[in-house]
Amino acid sequence: MLLPYFSFLLACGITVALPSRENTLFERMRILGPLGRINSRIEFSCPALNPSPTVPTSVHALRPADIRLVAAIGDSLTAANGAKASTIIGLLIEYRGVSWSAGGDSDLTKAVTLPNILKTFNRNLYGFSTGTGSRDTANAMFNVARPGAVSAEMPDQANMLVDRMIEKLGTSRFESEWKLVTFFIGGNDLCSYCEDTNRYSTAAYRNNIKTTLDILHNRMPRTLVNFVTVLNVAELEDLHEGVVCKNMQFFLCDCAVNTTTREQVRVANLAYQKATNDLVDSGIYDTRNDFTVVRQPFMEHMEVPTTSTGATDFSYFAPDCFHFSAKGHEAAAVELWNNMMEKVGQKGILWNLADTLKCPSTDADINTLQQLISSLSNAQKEKIFQSLLENSNQGRQDNSNWCCNIDPGVEAAAKTRQTTYYVQRHARNKCGYSDCGLFGWSSCTSWCDTYWSEMQHGVETYIVYTPRLCPAGNLVCCAGYITVINHCFTYQEVMNNKDVLEILVSMGIPINPTMG
């Protein structure tokens, strides 16, 4: 597919060379800015968290610093195609070093990726990809994602990953060190869904995912698998602006942007998500103490980012308006990490574009501190609360500290809107006469073909998904937070507040210095 794709990129490049009042290539470059450089805007002030005193035998006791190996399987969104591209030709380059789930270029101050976050806890992390290149280059390491891949290819990728890890690590290290594998696939299946509903059916997609997870379960000891729920490809509709975006999206994902098939893809998208959610939540991968699969749903109801004026924010996307830009990879890495820090049943299902990374902590420390504070009198709690409030920036501008201890789900509402589309027409008409017959002595009618585009107007139905409000009785402080008089404060805020610690000590409550 590489040659047709390259030809299409050249065709788009020629097309957009013509002046247009829409988003031309030059306007896109102006909007996107110098994506080749990443200056992290992410706040990460978590305290150092040492690895477990001994190597854990249970995946459920795993700390970030215990993870020694990182890997990923998937498609071009994991290979990071076009992440630093400023023109459509750059989409052919796989910028694996800045991949949200597997990239390890530089450090967290320059490239926000899952491996770079983990490096802050374990400088000896191994397996992340760097630089550019295909999955067969040495620097790809354990990122074996392939651009254009569909779910049917994932079992092969899983086996390739295991074989590569054993080859590079040796059997002893492969079996003894803890591994984190991020698994994200399905966009290309949905983009081809309308072309072959049998091959890309929900049942086929689920079976491919199950076969892949079965391989990882059977062949990989000491492994935590992040299964990232397939994103909402119907949101591409909001990026369908300008000649570049329109042409590229029709080429890359016609099923999702074509008005005649878009609703069919929406339905399939939801079915994919439900099928894999049910599969992962079934518990069939929780049969061993050293392996589990955790669903990370932050892309499940992802919406296209907007600017402060409400316009589509193209800076999160590569020039084709389909793949992530470096900024988009950064945002995805933050959301993935924050999902990982949230408890099962309390994980966010929207892309919140957060600029703060949540801190890990042990439930034992949080529960102990919460019990200590909850046991105090109201007057004592008030004193602690006032001290925390004076020094806290948490929760001042949003409600991000609060979570729902149930999944409230979403409301689906059908709406209609007027659409305009073009239909290609063709006609044959008489356009004169020409000499014909023997010796050209006769006169014959000449016919000419005429082609034109005819504007059509119609009404389409689309679905709007709105998260349900959490019932008041189910509102709780999110994982990693302490409740003090109906307010949520981070564990680190409490333990780093000298005044609060002095108050607790003065009340006769012993504070173990290692808790902070």
TrEMBL record:
It is a single-pass type I membrane protein. GO terms for biological process: phospholipid metabolic process. The keyword ATP-binding does not apply. SUPFAM superfamilies: SGNH hydrolase. Keywords: Cell membrane, Glycoprotein, Hydrolase, Lipid metabolism, Membrane, Repeat, Signal, Transmembrane, Transmembrane helix. Gene3D superfamilies: SGNH hydrolase. It comes from the Eukaryota. The keyword Transmembrane helix applies. One of its GO terms (molecular function) is retinyl-palmitate esterase activity. Transmembrane segments: none annotated. Its main location: membrane. GO terms for cellular component: brush border membrane. Residues 1-17 form the signal peptide. InterPro entries: GDSL (IPR001087), Phospholipase_B (IPR035547), PLB1 (IPR038885), SGNH_hydro_sf (IPR036514). It is found in: Apical cell membrane. Belongs to the 'GDSL' lipolytic enzyme family. Phospholipase B1 subfamily. Calcium-independent membrane-associated phospholipase that catalyzes complete diacylation of phospholipids by hydrolyzing both sn-1 and sn-2 fatty acyl chains attached to the glycerol backbone (phospholipase B activity). Has dual phospholipase and lysophospholipase activities toward diacylphospholipids. Preferentially cleaves sn-2 ester bonds over sn-1 bonds. Acts as a lipase toward glycerolipid substrates. Hydrolyzes fatty acyl chains of diacylglycerols with preference for the sn-2 position and of triacylglycerols with not positional selectivity. This is Phospholipase B1, membrane-associated. The lineage of its organism: Eukaryota, Metazoa, Spiralia, Gnathifera, Rotifera.
